Protein 1
Amino acid sequence: MSAGGGPDNDTARIEAFSDGVFAIAITLLVIEIRPPHVEGGGSLTEALAHLWPSYLGYAISFLVIGTVWANHHNRFRLISRSDHQFLFLNVLFLMCVAFIPFPTALLADYLPSTGGYRTTAVAVYTGTLAVTAVFFTLLWLYAAGNRRLVDRRTDPSVLRAMTRRFVLGMFLYIVAFALAFVSVTASLALIVALALLFVLPEPGDRSKENRRARRGAVR
C-alpha cells in the first residue's frame, strides 16, 4: 500500500492471508467434535450415533466454508488491485468466516432439543452465514463497481452475471435466517442447497468453456 492509501497490485498477500483464515476456521470445525466417554456397559456405537448433530453441523459448515473459499479465490482471479477500503471489507468478511465454528458448535449442542433453544441455535447459525454473505457481496460490489479494482479486460456481461449471482445468494441466506423462526428444517435445507448451488461453475467459467467448445468445433 502506498502512503496515500491508493490502490496497489499486491493482491497475492491479501489472498494468502485470507486462505490462512479459511484454513483455521475449517480446521476448528472438527475440533468441536469430541469423542464420547462410555462407562460401564454402555455402547460406544450408540454414543457415537448420538453425536449426529455434531456430524451434521460439521458437514454443513465444511461445505459452506469450502464453497465460500472457492468463490473468494475465484474473485481474486479478476481482482487486480486493492485499496484501503477493500482491505477493510475483506477483514470484516474474514471476521465472519472465523466466527463460523462457534455457531456450528451451538447448532450441534441444541439441534436435538425442542422449542426455543433449537430455534435460537439455528437462527444464530443461519444469521452468521447471512452476515458473512452480506460482507462477501459488499466486497465484490466494491471491487467490481465501475471496474474499480477488477481487471479492466473482463467481459462486462460476466461481471453483471456474477453480481446478480452474489446478490441473489445474499438475499437467500437472509431468507434462510428468517426461515429459522418458522421451520429449522427448511432453514438448514436452504443453507445446504445454497452451498451446492455455489459449487456450480460460475458465469465466467461457463463462458470460457463455451468459447473453447466453439474453437474446437471450428477446427
Protein 2
Amino acid sequence: MGLFDFMKNAGAKILGKDRDDTPESTKPLSAHLRDHGIDPVGIQFRFHGDTVVMEGTVPDQDTREKAVLIVGNVEGIARVDDRLRVEPRKAPAQIPPKPLSGAADASATTSHASPGSGDGGAWTSKTHTVASGDTLSGIAKQHYGDARLYPRIFEANKPMLKDPDQIYPGQVLRIPPQG
C-alpha cells in the first residue's frame, strides 16, 4: 500500500478533462489495463483530483505493481494511491472422487493455495522515474551495477514497454530485485 507520484503531463492520453467516479469516467483505465494484458476484474478506481485510488484484488504481486504503474503512466494522473491486495484467484472447486467400495474409510486430501495476506503488502520492486537522456542500460547500470542487465528491467515492464529503446522522461518503471 502506498502513494506513488507520477508526472501528470506525461504518459498515455486516454482520459478526458472531466473526471468523476462514475463507471464511464473510469472505463478508460480498465480498458488501458486490459490493453496491457492485465485483467481489471476485481479492481475499482476512484478519482480525487489528479490522484487515482486503486482498490480491490489482483492475483499476484507482479500484476499489482504493473497495474499501478500502467495507471500512473497516464497523462493527467499525478498520483496513484495503491490499496490493492494480492489474493490468488481460486480455481473452481473440484469434487473428490468417491472411495472404491471396500476401501477402509478413505479420506480426500486437498491442498489450497494460501489466500494472500489480505493487505497490500510491500512492493518487491523499486521504481525509477525516467529522466531526459536515460536508457534502460543506464538505468540497469545505476540500479544493478551492470548495464547488460537491462533486459531484466525491460521484461519487468512488459507489456507497458514494447521496445527497450522507447522510454520517455517522466515514465515510471519497475526495477525488480537483482537476485
Protein 3
Amino acid sequence: MISRPQTAEAAPYYFTYINQVTGDDPVGALENQLEESQAFFSEISEEQSLHRYAPEK
C-alpha cells in the first residue's frame, strides 16, 4: 500500500496539495473520486481540450 509521503519525500510546496487529502491511503482517495472525475472530464469537448492560453503553450 502506498502511504502518505513523509516530509523528506516531497518538496514543501507539494504539501499544500498533499495535506488536502484526508486519510493515509492516496490510492483509495483517487478510487473514490473516479466517477466524479470521469463525469467532469467527459464534459470537456474536443475543441476545449485543444485550447491554449498563449501561443505554443
